[in-house]
Amino acid sequence: MPHAAWTELEAAARRDADARIVDQFAADPGRLARMTVEAAGLRLDLSKQSWTKAGFEAALALARACDVEGRRAALFGGEAVNLTEGRAVLHPALRAPAGAAFRALGEPVSAEVEAVRAEMRAYAEAVRSGNETGATGRPFQAVVHVGIGGSDLGPRLIWDALRPLDPEIDLRFVANIDPRDMAEALTGLDPETTLVVVVSKTFTTQETLANAEAAKAWLAAALPAEGMARHFIGVTAAPEKAAGFGCGRTFAFRDWVGGRYSLWSAVSLSCVIGLGWDAFQGFLDGAAEMDRHFLEASLETNAPVLLALAQIYNVDGLRRPARTVAPYAHALRRLPAFLQQLEMESNGKRVRRDGSPVGRPTCPVVFGEPGTNGQHAFFQQIHQGPQVVPAEFVIVASTDGETSESPLWANALAQAQALMLGKSEIQARAELIASGASEDEADRLAPHKTFPGDRPSTAIVLDALTPQALGALIALYEHKTFVEGVLWDINSFDQWGVELGKALAKSILRDVAARAPAPDLDPSTAALLQRLIR
Ligand code: F6P
């Protein structure tokens, strides 16, 4: 029964609250082996988490009681797991090897996936080779990718992570409705050699349509009208809308691809143009390998399951409402932003699948910066603040440009160690005395130089930032997010929470047009509106 398993997990966490992480290695000699797994070329080390052996087993028992395996089968089987929208959720179909036989709500989808992949590949190769040209016959040298949320964050992450330092194609991204974003992206580009890829699952998103119109105006000022469509590519689940907008060509995906899970589809066409097909295929292959691991590994050695359980243990067992993610690779600097959408839009929910309240905390606040930048910003709070914030270190064994004598990863290991070990007040005082401080000075300063320690962290290790490793890493996080949704019994695949603000923005824009707040507007919003109307 999930209820009893939750009670047991909470009780185990209460007992573990007094056990120090560092002591557990001696108390439980099998700890490191039990809490370390290898999956699709990645290593996951959860042995610096707060759980004891008993806590770890209580978490695994929760996964069993919540039927993670059954719900996983429903996901891969193309059932309507997104039950508020009546849709299957089949991003694994997008990265499956040729010849797979996925079905969405019973309908075969793999042949169509392969056909779109072939179209993407051929088109990207034609752009890269110069065979595909713009309105005036010149080859494309720049691509402007227009999209927001799931139609932006994934491709941006892929490009930043894998792009060469001096790419053949100048790929730029525009998401924000603030015209400054588009203005920055277009600076220095030549309309004759610029391709605009408009990415929107719905093709109704206000920001993306406004930016696409701005790009159209920029192109129209320089190009003959009859050739304009060659400069516009649509990527969407609503191809008729993209054609209506003026896209000369459209790459489609289906409604069983969630926006924040769509980077495996034609949504990443701009990256395929920028990187070439082989890199994208490697990215898909890495994810497919993680899919196989997720499907085949037992729960106790299953990387996405264990990563999810560590989060559940922190959030629900120990009531820690935030988690920081620190990728120690500059090229992964967009990972925290990507994970914010993946996790917070998927699992920032308060009701179960049946509509009843979850009754316990769900998705934590996810935030982060690349290492070592974060160390010089918010890590102070993580080391010495009274609230415990679990940390996740994404470590790359070798990154471009670093030396083997001072690898970036050494900083990640040191931070994780400092978080776990801390420094006692006695130790801090002794160090002060040893460095020449007086007894009074040592008494005064020691509390400030004390680190409580016992702060949990996870390490995820990649050998190198290859396309395969990046694919495996993102798929790991996707499945982890899914498993958490299973344990909380929520629908991880809708996002109704973004709708209300969108609707109210329309009504505020009506007030702006009327140059007066509506009579029923609350006093604070009305006063702000008056102040802002120019
Ligand atoms: O923010 C809400 C949202 O619907 C996201 O889920 C989605 O990724 C984003 O907007 C963009 O949507 P679209 O791809 O339809 O433009």
UniProtKB/TrEMBL annotation:
One of its GO terms (biological process) is gluconeogenesis. Gene3D superfamilies: 1.10.1390.10, Glucose-6-phosphate isomerase like protein, domain 1 (3.40.50.10490). The active site is at 345 (proton donor), 376, 502. SUPFAM superfamilies: SIS domain. One of its GO terms (molecular function) is carbohydrate derivative binding. It catalyses: alpha-D-glucose 6-phosphate = beta-D-fructose 6-phosphate. InterPro entries: G6P_Isomerase (IPR001672), G6P_Isomerase_C (IPR023096), Phosphoglucose_isomerase_CS (IPR018189), SIS_dom_sf (IPR046348), SIS_PGI_1 (IPR035476), SIS_PGI_2 (IPR035482). Pathway: Carbohydrate degradation; glycolysis; D-glyceraldehyde 3-phosphate and glycerone phosphate from D-glucose: step 2/4; Carbohydrate biosynthesis; gluconeogenesis. Its EC number is 5.3.1.9. Its main location: cytoplasm. It is found in: Cytoplasm. One of its GO terms (cellular component) is cytosol. Pfam families: PGI. Keywords: Cytoplasm, Gluconeogenesis, Glycolysis, Isomerase. CDD domains: SIS_PGI_1, SIS_PGI_2. Belongs to the GPI family. NCBIfam families: PRK00179.1. PANTHER family: GLUCOSE-6-PHOSPHATE ISOMERASE (PTHR11469:SF1). Catalyzes the reversible isomerization of glucose-6-phosphate to fructose-6-phosphate. This is Glucose-6-phosphate isomerase. It comes from Brevundimonas naejangsanensis. The lineage of its organism: Bacteria, Pseudomonadati, Pseudomonadota, Alphaproteobacteria, Caulobacterales. The gene is pgi.
